[in-house]
Amino acid sequence: MSKVFYVKPATTCLQQVALLRQRGMLIEDEAEAAFYLKHLNYYRLSAYWLPFEQTHATHTFRPGTSFQQVLALYVFDRELRLLTMDALERVEVSVRTQWASQIGHRHGPHGHLNPQLAYRSDHWQKNIALLTAEVERSDEIFIRHFTSKYQEQLPPVWAVCEVMSLGLLSRWYANLKPMPTRRAIASTYGLDERVFASWLHRLTLIRNVCAHHGRLWDRQFPLSVTLPQRPAALATQMQTGCKGIYNALLMLLHFMDQISPNHHWRRKLTELIETQNVYTSVMGAPPNWKSQPLWSLSSQSSTPTSCP
Q1: In the prediction, which pLDDT does 297 show?
Q2: Cα–Cα distance for residue pair 44/302, rounded to 1 Å
Q3: 62 by DSSP, 3-state: which?
Q4: How far apart are CA 168 and CA 161, in angstroms?
Q5: Angle CA(236)–CA(241)–CA(243) in degrees, nearest 5?
Q6: If you average pLDDT over residues 107-130, what whole number do you get?
Q7: What is the model's pLDDT at position 300?
Q8: Sign for the pseudo-dihedral over CA of 217, 220, 223, 226
Q9: Which end of the chain is less congested by CB atoms within 10 angstroms, N or C?
Q10: Chain-centre distance of CA 51, in angstroms?
Q11: d(CA 209, CA 221)
Q12: Alpha-carbon distance 16 to 257, whole Å?
């Protein structure tokens, strides 16, 4: 297929409202719709009215489609990203802690500088280069203290982990060679080390989507995650071949139960999903998702300890 030049001109918000009406969208308040288009971008919102289109070729909408329905889906996705980021923050902080603790105690404060701990030396070299760049960019006082006072190439593992991104943490764990260390980190969360590595990679992709305010609710990821064999409640509820967000939400729910047993994330997420329950199949959820044991509040631990 040969490429052509893009010749469509820019349009005003009122012209965009008129176009949506022409295509069959119900808009009760023209000024309100123009206001949202002014701040949310027509092109961005267009991804949220795709499910309402009757014919994509002509971009005509199904009868009864309203601008408020589209806006509600947009708000749902935004709140889903915020809730997901809330859980991801706690997971990232916890995994940093476990990575640093296990390497520090088993391989010394600068075990991360030892290439013998890596499956592949080329990956280790790349990870070291990325981590060095993070340290050099950091304006954290504790990083400046270590780099100005000590001769080592990088600060000790328990300090340097605080400037690592989730993506770099995932890559470092995937390349970590000593099996006892891999298992010790993964077992903190009741997971097999292969499953844990797969989950970290998926959560990194999801974090990148959320951090850049991308569409999440119907996102399809390229590869399925490795499914666990235990715990049984989790293993039976994760969907085989699911590339949508649903399996990742179950993963985050499992992590939250391990990290912060008295959390309210389960309730908040359930209530949010119910506001747009018609779209759960696109997320990869089964029709009876809410009746599954992992979504029951009774499945949450009664342990009094809970991380912030």
Answers
A1: 63
A2: 42
A3: coil
A4: 10
A5: 110
A6: 96
A7: 53
A8: positive
A9: N
A10: 22
A11: 11
A12: 46
Q: Quick one: pLDDT band at residue 152, thresholds 50, 70, 90?
A: confident
Residue 32 has pLDDT above 70, yes or no: yes
Phi, psi angles (nearest 5°) of residue 174: -60, -30
pLDDT confidence of residue 307: 65
Distance CA 289, CA 123 (A): 39
118 - beta bridge partners? 176
Residue pLDDT, tens place only, 222-281: 878 899 988 777 888 888 888 899 999 999 999 999 999 899 999 999 999 988 877 888
Provide the 3-class DSSP secondary structure of residue 72: helix
190 sits in which H/E element: none
Cα 205 from chain centroid (whole Å): 6
C-alpha span between 265 and 83 (Å, rounded): 8
Cβ neighbours, 10 Å, residue 161: 24
Looking at residue 235, its amino acid is A
Q: Are 17 and 37 a contacting pair, CB within 8 Å?
A: yes
Residue at token pair 């050099």: 136
Question: Which residue reads 């991360």 in tokens?
Answer: 112
State pLDDT tens for residues 41-64.
999 999 999 999 998 889 999 999
Q: Is the pTM of this model over 0.85?
A: yes
Say which residues have a Cβ less than 8 Å from residue 225's Cβ, sequence separation at least 6: 195, 198, 199, 201, 202, 238, 247, 248, 251
For residue 221 the two structure tokens come to 């990821």
Q: What is the dihedral of CA 88, 155, 175, 252, to 10 degrees?
A: -10
Going by their DSSP bridges, the two strands 60-61 and 53-55 should be labelled as antiparallel
The pair of structure tokens assigned to 283 is 């997320």
| Residues 225 and 246: beta-carbon distance below 8 Å | no
What are the tokens at 44? 């961005």
